[in-house]
Every structure is written in structure tokens, then in C-alpha cells.
């Protein structure tokens, strides 16, 4: 059989999408003497893959270490129109009409390290630093003169540190798809929503930099090379571990909080323009379940459970990547939210570089 010509495909970093860094498919180092008159033995044939961020990909070779600085900016905007009063007719309102515009901006810088333990096993550590800012602009139109109020809050600090393991499940001797199993754990090193400073009424004075809950996410990545493209898909399930918060906020004590789990899906295509450049098109969707929160009135001892609505976060993905040299790449990615719960835009810049450590 003829061995497929290897071609470097530089896959750009996508959302919060796949495993990043200079990664290469596992190759067979076995050498055997060919017999006259017989075809050579089947060899593992696959393209060399530079990066597939946050989901999982064909992995870093044994002894290779990849260090990846990353900068990410996310923006979302919510506009609400609220009427407080009496509706006499559909065209006649007696009361106050409030217009509220909420802008949420998040800047995250992180450093990720990946080590190829073997040609099929990779370990990862990610340390983020987060700065968040929320600005609420409220306009009360039904007063004279019109009343405007602006309120801003911010928060910064260490985010939730993550560790992960990625294992290539098959050797792909027949030219089919690659299967990679992933397991990711997110800690609670960031400041949780229950630890931030608040007023006596429970109103936030600052913003959290972490979720406040441990989470574990197993997932499966499928990569199918079709020169000059690679098709990818990923499915995962995020387990958010419930916790007994036991914190008083305002007039109530927050008891057990069970954050909703999430089903995570993504798919797309990475296309090689030439030996150094590529672009990626994709889509990802997170279906996040309902969150249950216990509230206890300390005066009466009555406990009630409040259930928050589920979330549907879907985004289109667009990315570019360029291989500066064999050890360094640069990638730029954009996410455009297409569901109501998704951020409007997310911009991510990564610059992974690798070197041999053993």
C-alpha cells in the first residue's frame, strides 16, 4: 500500500473548543526488514496536527513539552425594557417605563502546559487570571426629566485552575478516524460568587473569578483526515459537583447548591491553505441543566428551593493559524454567539511553542 503524503495542518485555537499546543499524531517507530516480493507492513499514517484547542486532538509526542500563553476577551450585552404600573389599554400605560442595558466584559490571560508522557498519553495544566467588569445603565423614561443611572462592578484574580489528560485510543493503521479520550477537572481556586464582598442587603460589590464548584468532564474527540482538510467532532458531559455553601447573603442563608450539568457538542473542519497556514470553521453548543439552590430563612427556619432556568449556549467558530517555525505557532479565533444565552463575541489569541524535555 502507498503511504499517504504527510502534510502539516495548522489548526487554529477555537473556544473555549479543543486541545491546544504543538501536537503531532503518534507514529510508529518500529522498523522491520521487508521481504522480496511482499508488500511492506501496514504503517500508521496520519497528518501532523499543530493544534486543536480545548476539545482534544492527536497528541504531543513523547518527551515534548508545549507551553501556551493565551489571551481571551469576551463581551455580552443584554437589553431589557421593563414597565412598572397599570396597563389600561394596549396603547395606554400608566406607570414607569425602565430601559436597562447590561454590558459584561471578561479578560482572561492564561498559561497552559502540555507534556507528552508517551506517544499516546498527554497531561495538561492550565492556570488562568481573570478580570471581569459589568456595567448596568438604567433609564427611567416616564419621569421629567428622564432619569439615568449607571452602576459598575468589577473583580479580578486567579481563576479556576484546570488539569486534564488526553489519550489516543487507536493507532489508525487503516487511514480511518482518530479517537481521543479526554478527562478534565476544574478546581475552585477562583473566588466564588459566595465569597465576594456584598452589602448588608446582599448586593454584590465585586464580581467572582471562579464558579465555586468542582467539575469533571469526560469527552470523546473524533478526527478524520481528508487531505487537505481535517474534520473534527467532540461530545462531552460536564459533571458539576453540588456543594453545601452555608453562607448568609442578605436575609437568607444559602444552603445546598446543585449546579446544572452540561452536555457539550462541537464539530467542524480545519482546512490547510499551505504548509504554514490554515483556517477553521465550526460550531459548538453547550446545553446546561437547571440549577437548584436552597434558601433558609434564619428567623423562621423555613427552607425553600429555587430552580434556575436551563441555558442553551451556541456559537459559530472561525479561526486562523500560522506556523512561524517548527516550534512556534500563532492562532487567532473568533466565536459569535447565536443563541440568547451565549456571549455576543469571544476573541482568543494563542501562541504555543514547544521543546523537547526528554
TrEMBL record:
<feature type="compositionally biased region" description="Polar residues">
    <location>
        <begin position="26"/>
        <end position="35"/>
    </location>
</feature>
<keyword id="KW-0732">Signal</keyword>
<protein>
    <recommendedName>
        <fullName>Outer membrane beta-barrel porin/alpha-amylase</fullName>
    </recommendedName>
</protein>
<dbReference type="Pfam" id="PF13557">
    <property type="entry name" value="Phenol_MetA_deg"/>
</dbReference>
<dbReference type="InterPro" id="IPR025737">
    <property type="entry name" value="FApF"/>
</dbReference>
<feature type="signal peptide">
    <location>
        <begin position="1"/>
        <end position="25"/>
    </location>
</feature>
<feature type="region of interest" description="Disordered">
    <location>
        <begin position="26"/>
        <end position="47"/>
    </location>
</feature>
Amino acid at each position: 500500500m502507498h503511504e499517504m503524503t504527510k502534510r502539516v495542518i495548522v489548526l487554529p485555537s477555537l473556544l473555549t473548543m479543543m486541545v491546544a499546543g504543538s501536537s503531532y499524531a503518534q507514529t510508529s517507530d518500529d522498523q522491520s526488514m521487508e521481504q522480496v516480493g511482499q508488500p511492506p507492513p501496514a504503517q500508521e499514517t496520519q497528518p501532523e496536527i499543530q493544534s486543536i484547542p480545548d476539545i482534544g486532538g492527536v497528541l504531543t509526542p513523547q518527551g515534548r513539552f508545549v507551553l501556551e500563553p493565551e489571551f481571551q476577551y469576551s463581551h455580552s450585552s443584554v437589553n431589557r425594557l421593563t414597565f412598572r404600573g397599570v396597563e389600561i389599554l394596549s396603547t395606554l400605560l400608566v406607570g414607569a417605563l425602565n430601559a436597562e442595558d447590561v454590558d459584561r466584559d471578561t479578560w482572561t490571560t492564561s498559561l497552559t502546559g502540555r507534556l507528552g508522557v508517551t506517544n499516546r498519553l498527554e497531561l495538561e495544566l492550565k492556570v488562568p487570571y481573570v478580570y471581569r467588569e459589568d456595567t448596568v445603565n438604567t433609564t427611567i423614561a416616564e419621569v421629567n426629566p428622564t432619569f439615568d443611572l449607571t452602576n459598575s462592578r468589577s473583580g479580578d484574580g486567579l481563576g479556576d485552575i484546570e488539569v486534564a489528560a488526553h489519550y489516543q485510543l487507536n493507532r489508525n493503521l487503516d487511514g480511518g478516524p482518530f479517537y481521543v479520550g479526554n478527562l478534565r477537572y476544574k478546581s475552585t481556586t477562583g473566588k466564588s460568587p459566595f465569597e465576594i464582598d456584598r452589602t448588608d442587603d446582599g448586593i454584590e460589590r465585586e464580581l467572582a473569578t471562579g464558579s465555586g464548584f468542582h467539575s469533571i468532564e469526560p469527552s470523546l474527540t473524533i478526527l478524520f483526515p481528508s487531505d487537505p482538510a481535517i474534520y473534527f467532532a467532540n461530545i462531552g458531559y460536564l459533571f458539576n459537583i453540588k456543594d453545601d455553601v452555608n453562607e448568609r447573603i442578605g436575609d437568607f442563608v444559602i444552603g445546598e447548591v446543585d449546579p446544572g450539568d452540561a452536555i457539550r457538542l462541537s464539530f467542524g473542519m480545519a482546512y490547510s491553505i499551505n504548509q504554514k497556514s490554515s483556517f477553521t470553521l465550526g460550531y459548538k453548543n453547550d446545553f446546561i441543566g437547571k440549577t437548584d439552590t436552597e434558601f433558609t430563612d434564619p428567623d423562621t427556619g423555613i427552607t425553600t428551593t429555587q430552580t434556575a432556568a436551563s441555558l442553551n449556549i451556541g456559537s459559530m467558530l472561525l479561526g486562523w493559524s500560522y506556523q512561524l517555525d517548527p516550534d512556534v505557532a500563532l492562532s487567532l479565533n473568533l466565536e459569535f454567539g447565536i443563541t440568547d444565552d451565549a456571549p455576543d463575541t469571544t476573541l482568543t489569541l494563542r501562541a504555543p511553542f514547544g521543546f523537547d524535555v526528554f
